[in-house]
Fold this sequence. Notes:
Elements: H1 2-17, H2 34-60, E1 76-92, E2 95-107, E3 110-121, E4 124-139, H3 140-143, H4 148-151, H5 163-166, H6 171-184, E5 200-215, E6 224-226, E7 232-248, H7 259-280
Antiparallel strand pairs: 1-4, 1-7, 2-3, 2-6, 5-7
Helix pairs in contact: 2-6
Amino acid sequence: MLRGAIIAAFSASCLTIAGCGVQVPKLEEPWESREIGLNLITAIKKNILCELVTAVQYVNGRTFNLQKTGPILGNYGVQFQLDLTTDESTELNPGLTYTRTFLHGLVYDNPVGQSFSMSLGGKARSAATALRTVYEYYDLDRIALNDPAAICNEQGRHAGSSLLLQSELGIRDFLIGATRSSTLYRSSEAPAKGEFKRGYFVYNTKFVVETTGNVTPTWKLVAISGDGSPFLSTNRTRTHELTLTFSSHDPGTLRGPNAVAVQAHFTTQLKAALDRFNTSR
Length: 281
């Protein structure tokens, strides 16, 4: 009976919280369909591009471009990186106490209870991590030509529980503030090519959702009892991170990001990787 209860508790905890850390973690939540997991990256990209296109069109139409030289984000592109990390773990921490009671002893003719106790315990832990990364580069002049209605339709946009789908990401407000300061207080032009703009803008946002559960059975037999500590603990942590690095095109090819922006994007990703490493320790 006890063995059956332990197996049932283990199975229920794994099914409702996580994959127990013994298989590759899935993108979808345990209560979501497999189809949602298959389409999650597409749905997130669609939602982000909807905000991005409308933000670029809005910013290019603003009136604070003092030099009136064309679109504020003309000759600009954006490095788009999406990191979806899923960590799952299960910890088994069995413990029991054996107690043996002896006949009373006598101390100065007074009876004194006698017993022997010994506690036994162990710990086993399994963990699994899956990181999915998507990188794209978009020419802002080109994507600004898109009709937002074609991208921002509701079909499939919110299919999933990722907060990158359910939240207002604030890309437009970020671009308004960044381009306004850049327009009013411009970087010095590069010596060789005046069209090259040195500045870049990095937008980074991260959502972390953690779900935990534990099973703590309490039982007592004649000689053996549980120690009252959590017997089984499970954890599932989802980290969904978006990085957008806006910059002018490479001055030599006029295609792709310039070298300064590439280095800035790499630095942001290196910091994010170190944060993930420190969090998982």
